[in-house]
Amino acid sequence: MTSEQKNQIVLMHNQGYGYKKIAACLDISPNTVKSWLKRLNMTADECHEITTDENYCKGCGKPIMQISGRKKMLFCCRDCRQKWWNTHLDQVRRKAIYSFTCLHCGKEFTAYGNNHRKYCSRKCYIDERFHQSGK
Prior knowledge:
The protein has helices at residues 3-14, 19-26, 30-39, 78-87, 122-129; strands spanning 50-51, 66-67, 97-101, 108-112. With 135 residues, it is an alpha+beta fold. It has two domains: 3-90, Orthogonal Bundle (Arc Repressor Mutant, subunit A), CATH 1.10.10; 97-129, no CATH class. Helix 2 crosses helix 3 (30-39).
């Protein structure tokens, strides 16, 4: 299900459409609509307010529908988030940078996010595993 379909489900539900009508309009299963609304705590009895206060995706610029009582969304989908972070590495606050010494070649190296590294490269891992000398 696309992010556009998710937004449409929420909008149509807030306008009073039922699960079957929403599913027919978006050409998806009524159970998909029902489970998505349940995930958002939007049962037939209670609805959250949806706002479109000038919130736009940092990746593609599409408007983002914010759900009250939830964390503010910065991206419309996972793909936009990945692309944005990969192109803005200078703005990432990398706190988990670890320093190691390679068990095979003895070279000092750093790794992000993994504090259990033993080798500086895949080559050193293979060489050490199959007992090839490199020191």
